[in-house]
Design brief:
By secondary structure, the chain is mainly alpha-helical. The chain has one domain (3-155). 87% of the residues lie in helices and 0% in strands. The protein has helices at 3-78, 87-103, 109-123, 127-155.
Length: 157
């Protein structure tokens, strides 16, 4: 064999080797990009799930605040003796009323009704009227909180 033939064979072998390495790199790169896409999709699903859980936690925290404020508000209302409140209870009742106004959205029908009933119970002239308004307030609060609980459950699905 002459030098030119040997050089041609060597060059052909080098070219075949280079194409083989390039083919292997293409295959590996394709597999890696597929794995990266799957990892990105998993990360996106994880982030979306975490976001839903965070919103649900905020909603549950809001519900707990409303429950606490309404419970304290109701307890003070039910402890009124012959229509008179102590100065401390009057201050607490006013603070709780303000807290409820800030927590509840007056643009939502149930929330606005709950605020009206809470105010009516506070301003009632007789014990019977106060008890009726307070009972209606608690029932409406149950419905409002149940709706919120159902919303949380739907968001977590």
């Amino acid at each position: 064999m002459d030098v030119a033939t040997i050089s041609a064979i060597a060059a052909t072998a080098a070219a075949v080797g280079a194409f083989s390495v390039a083919g292997v790199q293409l295959y590996v790169g394709h597999r890696q990009s597929g794995a990266a896409l799957k990892a990105a999709a998993a990360a996106l699903m994880n982030a979306q799930s975490a976001g839903r859980h965070t919103v649900a936690e905020f909603r549950q925290s809001w519900s707990n605040k409303v429950i606490d404020a309404l419970s304290d508000y109701h307890a003070i209302l039910m402890s009124i003796d012959s229509g008179h409140l102590s100065a401390d209870d009057r201050r607490k009742l006013t603070a709780l009323w303000t807290r409820l106004e800030l927590l509840l959205n007056p643009d939502e029908a149930d929330a606005a009704s709950l605020l009206r009933l809470a105010d009516a119970a506070r301003l009632s002239k007789t014990a019977a009227e106060r008890d009726a308004n307070a009972r209606d307030m608690v029932q409406l609060a149950r419905n409002l909180l149940k709706t919120e609980w159902l919303t949380i459950q739907v968001e977590l699905q």
